[in-house]
Each structure stands twice: as C-alpha cells, then as structure tokens.
Specification:
The structure is a homotetramer of 134-residue chains.
Chain A lengths: L4 H18 L4 E6 L4 E6 L7 H14 L4 H6 L24 E6 L2 E9 L3 H13 L4
Antiparallel strand pairs in A: 1-2, 1-4, 3-4
Helix pairs in contact in A: 1-4
C-alpha cells in the first residue's frame, strides 16, 4: 500500500493552489512509503535551495512518521533528539513543512514543502495533505 | 531566459506519453538553465534507482550542453573525458537519456530520463525534447 | 506488500548456511520494497569492506529490479549503462551478489552478499533468495 | 578481543524483547571493537530513519567509549564538545540510545538503538548491554 503518481499529482495540485493563494511560490515534493520521491515541482520563482529541502522534508516525515515541525520541537538544544539533523547523510529537516500521509491509519508516504516562512510552508503542506485521494 | 514549470510539465507530458506507448515506466526530470531541477515524476513501477539518474542526466546535459549519450562516447576508457563520471559529486551520467533543451539556439535547460534500456531512455527523452513549448 | 523481519531472518539463515558450507564468511543484507535495509549480519571473519557492499548490493538489486551481476554486464565500458556505478551517491554495485526478491511476480525486496569471489557471493545470495518464506 | 556474531545476536535478542515489552518497534545495531557493524535489525514498523541512527549510535558509543546520552550532555551549545555531531562524516549521534559494551573492563563494541523516545531507546539499549554473553 503506497501512493501512486496520480495521488502525488493530486497532492501537489492542492498544495500549489494554496501556495498561489498566499502568493508564495514553493517547492513541493511527495515521497512514497519507502521514503523515495514520486514527484517534485518547483513553482516559478521558488527558491533553488528549496528543491533539496522539500524532498528531504518529505523523506524526514516518512522516516520518523512525524511532522517535521514536531520533530523540530524535540530536536532543539537540550531536547531528546538534538543533533538528529546531522544523521541520515544530511537528509533530516527539523523545521515546519513536512507531513506524513496516512491511509487507513498507516503511513503511506509524505509531502514536503519549502519556499517561504515556516508558517507558509506548513500551510501549503497541510493543504496538500488534506487533498482527497481517489 | 529559462524554462517555466508550465514548460517542464509540457515536456514531461510528452515524455510520459512516449513511455506509455513503449510500455516502459520511467523517471522523467526537467532542469532549468542553472541545471537545477524544475520537476521530476516517477511513473508507477519505474525504477527507484532512476530518480537520481534522471535528475542527474538532466543536470549533466545542461552542465556540458551535450546529450549524455554523446558525452558517454567521449568518456569511455582511453577517450578524452574518461573518468568525468566521478566529478561533480557523482552528478555526471554518461549514458543515453539526457538532452539539452534549446530556445533560439541557446540552451535553456535539459530533460533526463531513466527507467529502461539506453535506447528506451533516449527515445523518451527525445519525445520530451520535441514537445512544442508555448 | 513487503518483507518482514521474520522473512529477512529466514533469508539470512539460508544464506549463512550456504556460506558455512563453502567455508567463506560473508556479509548478508536484506532490503525491503523501498530499498531500505531490514537486517544485516557480518559472519565472524567476513570483510569489513563488505558491510557497505552487501547493503548496497541489496539496494541496487531493488533499485533496478535486476541481479547485480546482470546490471554489471550492462555497465562495462562501451555498454549501455557504463558509469552507472557513480550514481545514487555511491550506492550502486555492479558485480555479482545482489538479487531481487519477488512475491506473486512483484519485487518486494532484495538480498545482497559480500565476502568472497563473485561466484561465491552469487551462490550465497541465490541460497538466500531461494529460502521459502512463510 | 571483540564481539562475535553470536554475541551480537544475543544482545539483539535481549534488546528486541525489551522493545516488544514496551510496545515500541526499534532499530537495533551492534558494532565491534573497530566500530564496524556486526549486525542490524529493523523490527516491523520501526522508523526508516532509525536504520542510520541505530548504526551510528553504536559507532559513536565505541568511537568515544561513552554512552551517547552522556556525550550529548557535553555537546549542547556552550558545552565542551558542541558541534561534534558534524564530525566523522555525519556518523556522530549525541542523544540517548548508544552504549559501549565492555569485557574485563575493556570496550569490545557497542549497541545502538533508535525508534522511540530518548528514554525508550535508552531502556532498550540497556537491556541489550546487560545480556550475558557466552
């Protein structure tokens, strides 16, 4: 049970609509149950540096089955996972914008967004995560 | 002058149609004039290992403004670029499937395809490269 | 549909038995459908350098749904995938010892073996791949 | 004097039992006196991101002959080892779950656990470290 390319496109379309609504171009990536990317788009004008970050927010959200903003709370100095961002060959992102995607209670992939403030990235990722899949 | 996300999607749609026609699921990536990915899709059932390769075929084709199969001819043992695939942090791919995209004679990006034989990858990349852009 | 840890142990036990039979200690790794390692063992006296290679033979076999020895045949100089071993961040292995594992005709993971000659690695991987799963 | 694969399995079995007892699937790895992995298991449902972390908690615990949680205390901002998690090519983990293993007062290897909270990881690693070896 994993996501299809059609699922990924549905998620990306919903996220893009939200990014356009708030007027902030974004990188949006969707990963499958194995943490491997299914699709990525960089909207016109979005950060070059956000390519890697969006892909790795999706990876991180699936790697630990947690939203990256919640992982971030636990990864500040003196918290239980401080230093985790140096693991997994630099693929761990510990700030908002990565959300696991579930189906029947099981994590089947994740969406990652990068291009704006933490709040903006999170809002766009949430819009993607809420898209109804076929 | 570079490619837009809309251009990238047009290219990917044309490449996907060709991949479906030959019955081989593919990873397809489009890079901009800076060699940076605009979009990537992995068709259902396409190789996991082709994510990295499609993205880097597009990078390579733009990095040297050459088709990856032609770079490959020059990169065999005893040829002038032998060993080039170890450069650029492992991002250089020296076999068929990466094609620079031009507009008015200038390279504005590239397409990279991975998922089948060298001939199949090349055919799908060519279909993408031929897509008429708006 | 992927492999469980119990499946991985069954595969490793069968591979270990073969390694003992031929008298060559081995590294044996099993990856899941996403290419991610489920389990690895290094038999006493097996190569340190084989840890990485066994894990990445399993990754490679799943990444391209092909035995690593067959990928190797296609990756020699002047062949269609020459240079592929520089892709995927150094995780591609192009010599014998990696075999995809299928269930109902679908690839659900892979086994990778490293510690002896190409023939020995292949024989041990085949023994693992043939283990009947529950 | 180092650990055997049989020792590693004994340690993993004890750690797995503890993980099952607390109901949290874990990645468990055992390294030898050279810091090199002897065996790794990912229990069904355990984090994908914990593969790398469990292996590197074991490496870290042996690399500095210290529990990773104690190294963590010394690696917070303004402490004496702050920044150490960026060294050793990303292999240093500075939070709970890695424990050196001793025999006759000498460090002969280490166990690393990843999959739950810091407390859970530590409890499972301790269970592994306490397993009586033959």
């Amino acid at each position: 049970m994993t996501l299809t390319l059609a699922d990924a496109r549905t998620i990306i379309t919903a996220a893009e609509a939200k990014a356009s609504e708030i007027g902030q171009p974004m990188n949006i990536a969707v990963a499958d149950a194995g943490g491997n990317i299914i699709s990525h788009v960089r909207m016109d004008g979005a950060w070059l540096g956000g390519i890697d970050i969006s892909i790795n927010k999706a990876f991180t959200a699936r790697a630990f089955d947690i939203q990256t903003k919640d992982l971030g709370d636990n990864s500040q100095p003196n918290q239980q996972y401080y230093g985790i961002h140096a693991s997994n060959h630099g693929r761990i992102v510990i700030f908002a914008g990565g959300i696991p995607l579930t189906r029947d209670g099981e994590v089947v992939g994740a969406v990652g967004v990068s291009g704006g403030s933490g709040e903006q990235d999170q809002a766009v990722a949430e819009a993607g995560a809420k898209a109804p899949l076929a």
